[in-house]
């Protein structure tokens, strides 16, 4: 599977003290064999060259995006400060040189960015790019090379190791290989010296190595201490919901009963079908949305929905409102963010001290796509594999609600809070792993 949207705000801290991060938002994820050459994905600063140039796509697009994330965390700013694809390609050429001739020969969209002079490829000028595409180049910021980036980082931190910086830059170059066929894979990256710290041996490196191992050790300990029961919750029947209501205040009872009565008979039917006794032992994910009415299943229609057909009647929510799920009733405490998909609400589940992040998606098909992506990765332990944990998915009053674990802050917020300063290399390693 390819995530297709790895960026700073889609990586969040599960535990900021331990630098333990998780990948979130699988709304654009797709099985690798379904990736189509020429499909536009990823925001510009994290967009892989094969996406821009129209080369065959696979999961290596995510490795490129990860490399851009690590570079940004390492130096505190985008490696490619670009707003157009031309600026991204120009920055790549400045840092890595021209792509190999055979790469450009295979690229479908090369003519917008490159031209031949006497048989040799060269980068188009901004004027040539504008003439070909009609798009103006709005900024021509210079980019910093890896040596200058390393010097800046070393000057910021008293405790550093030259070999560790070299190991990181070597890994970064392998991740940011312009030719996707030669780009390092995730399994290969995990064996790289920067991750394994094999290069940090000897008495002269003992103090620095101990600090690095301390950070990594805390992260691993944090993963081991995760409460396994937090991810499992038995489905609540209608009688269970009624028992919750009986324990609430009079004003809350009125609010919840209004919510319960507001749903159509069809919606109530869909809730009861999801809680049927013959499915109570199945995983939360298993076929939850298959039985919902008016749910498109055609994959071509699913792909078309990503092109902007978002018009739908959304549930109007405010703080204090309730969402009735398969496993309980959730009360909206505050809103954590919103976007074209809808909103993310921080919620409590009545009768439980746990907090949850509920992604409320207005477009039913888009909600189903994200749900199906989560089903594909449910075989992976979310803590060991640094994936956001999903608890349940339900339909409520014409919207899809995906219930996730609550996390702390995104990498983007972390960098902004730290005034976009370079992150210590020991922390970069924890995030990379």
TrEMBL record:
Report the InterPro entries cross-referenced here: Kinase-like_dom_sf, Prot_kinase_dom, Protein_kinase_ATP_BS, Ser/Thr_kinase_AS, Ser_Thr_dual-spec_kinase
Binding of ATP occurs at 359
Its Gene Ontology cellular component terms are: cytoplasm; PML body
SUPFAM superfamilies noted in UniProt: Protein kinase-like (PK-like)
Q: Which Gene3D superfamilies match?
A: Transferase(Phosphotransferase) domain 1
Tell me the superkingdom of the source: Eukaryota
**Is RNA-binding one of the keywords UniProt gives this record?**
no
Q: Give one GO term, molecular function aspect.
A: protein serine/threonine kinase activity
Q: Which GO terms describe its biological process?
A: intrinsic apoptotic signaling pathway in response to DNA damage by p53 class mediator; positive regulation of transcription by RNA polymerase II; smoothened signaling pathway
Stretches for region Disordered: 229-249, 262-281
Q: Where is the Protein kinase domain?
A: 1-195, 330-433
The UniProt keywords, alphabetically, are: ATP-binding, Kinase, Nucleotide-binding, Serine/threonine-protein kinase, Transferase
Per the record, the similarity remark reads:
Belongs to the protein kinase superfamily.
User: PANTHER family per the record?
Assistant: DUAL SPECIFICITY PROTEIN KINASE, HOMEODOMAIN-INTERACTING PROTEIN KINASE 2
Q: What is this protein called in UniProt?
A: Protein kinase domain-containing protein
Native species: Oryzias sinensis (Chinese medaka)
């Amino acid at each position: 599977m390819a995530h297709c949207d790895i960026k700073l705000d889609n990586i969040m801290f599960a535990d900021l003290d331990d630098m333990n991060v998780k990948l979130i938002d699988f709304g654009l994820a797709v099985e690798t064999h379904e990736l189509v050459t020429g499909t536009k994905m990823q925001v510009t600063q994290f967009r892989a060259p094969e996406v821009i140039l129209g080369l065959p796509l696979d999961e290596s697009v995510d490795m490129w995006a990860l490399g851009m994330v690590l570079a940004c965390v390492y130096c505190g700013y985008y490696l490619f400060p670009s707003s157009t694809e031309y600026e991204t390609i120009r920055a790549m050429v400045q840092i890595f040189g021209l792509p190999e001739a055979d790469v450009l020969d295979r690229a479908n969209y090369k003519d917008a960015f490159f031209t031949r002079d006497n048989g040799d490829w060269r980068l188009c000028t901004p004027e040539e790019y504008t003439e070909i595409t009609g798009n103006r180049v709005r900024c021509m910021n210079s980019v910093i090379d890896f040596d200058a980036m390393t010097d800046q980082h070393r000057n910021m931190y008293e405790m550093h190791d030259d070999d560790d910086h070299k190991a990181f830059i070597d890994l970064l170059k392998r991740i940011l290989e312009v030719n996707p066929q030669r780009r390092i894979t995730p399994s290969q990256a995990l064996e790289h010296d920067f991750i394994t710290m094999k290069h940090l041996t000897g008495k002269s490196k003992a103090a620095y190595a101990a600090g690095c191992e301390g950070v990594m050790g805390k992260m691993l300990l944090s993963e081991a201490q995760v409460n396994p029961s937090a991810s499992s919750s038995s489905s609540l029947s209608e009688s269970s919901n009624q028992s919750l209501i009986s324990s609430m205040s009079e004003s809350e009872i009125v609010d919840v009963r209004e919510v319960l009565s507001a749903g159509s008979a069809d919606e109530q039917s869909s809730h009861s079908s999801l809680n049927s006794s013959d499915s109570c032992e199945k995983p939360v994910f298993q076929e939850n949305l298959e039985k919902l009415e008016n749910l498109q299943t055609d994959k071509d229609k699913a792909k078309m929905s990503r092109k902007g057909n978002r018009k739908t009647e959304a549930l109007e929510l405010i703080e204090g409102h309730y969402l009735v799920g398969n496993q309980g009733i959730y009360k909206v405490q505050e809103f954590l963010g919103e976007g074209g998909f809808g909103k993310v609400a921080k919620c409590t589940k009545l009768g439980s001290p746990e907090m949850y992040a509920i992604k409320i998606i207005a477009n039913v098909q888009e909600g189903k796509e994200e749900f199906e992506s989560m089903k594909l990765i449910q075989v992976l332990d979310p803590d060991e594999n640094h994936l956001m944990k999903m608890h349940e998915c339900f339909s409520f009053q014409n919207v899809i609600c995906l219930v996730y674990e609550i996390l702390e802050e995104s990498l983007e917020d972390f960098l902004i809070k730290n005034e976009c300063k370079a992150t210590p290399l020991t922390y970069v390693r924890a995030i990379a792993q």
